[in-house]
Amino acid sequence: MAKYAVICASNQNRSMEAHHVLNKKGFNVKSYGTGTMVRLPGPAIDKPNIYPFGTPYEQVYQELKRQDQQLYTQNGLLSMLDRNRKTKEAPQRWHESTDLFDVIITCEERCFDSVIEDLSNRGQNLSQSTHVINVEIKDNHEDALLGGRAILQLAQMIESSNDIDADMDGIIEEFTLRNPGFPILHSVAYF
To answer: Could you tell me the pTM of the whole model?
Structure first.
C-alpha cells in the first residue's frame, strides 16, 4: 500500500476531511498544512482565530466553545474540530515533516506550489520519487466533504495499480473524467 499525505493550508478542513475518510478505509495517511499559522474563522472576517501549528484540536475546540458556542456551532467549526480531534492530536506543518510519501495530495494550487518548492529546497538527496497531485477543493464544509470522497476515489484508483509511476497519467485522466468538478495538477518530485 502506498503512503499518502493530504495537505491544505491550515490542516483543519479539506486535508482533515480527506485524512478522516482515507483513515477510515485503512489507508496509510498523514495530513499537513502549508501555512505559517493555523487560521480559522472568527467572530468577524477581520478577526480570525489564529493558532500555531501543533496546538491540539481539543484545546481549540474548548476555547472556541467557551468563546461563542452558538456562533461556532452554527458555522460548523465545532463539528469540524470534533472530527479532527478524533482523527489526530493537532495540526502539523508540512515544512516541518521529515516523513517520505509515495503520493502527496494537496487541496489548493498554492499548497501544491508550496510543496513542490519545499521538496526542491530540501535538495532531493534521497532520490525517492513522489507524485504530487492537486485536487482543487473550495475551502468550505460542503466542498470538503465532496473533495474527501473524490480523494478517496483517487487513492483507490492508485491502489488498484501495479505500477503507480507507469499508470499515473491514465489514473489522472480517468479521475478527471469521473470528477470534472475537481481540476487536477500533477508533478513528480523527489525527496
So the answer is: 0.96
CA angle 47, 13, 30 (to 5 degrees): 130
CA distances from 120 to 27, 78, 125 (A): 26, 37, 10
* Rounded CA separation 14/17 (Å): 5
Residue 28: all three cell numbers together: 496509510
Write out pLDDT tens, residues 102-138. Answer: 999 999 999 999 999 999 999 888 999 999 999 999 9
β-pairing verdict for 129-135 and 184-190: antiparallel
Dihedrals φ, ψ of 69, to 5°?
-60, -40
pLDDT in tens, 135-158: 999 999 999 999 999 999 999 999
CB atoms within 10 A of CB 5: 25
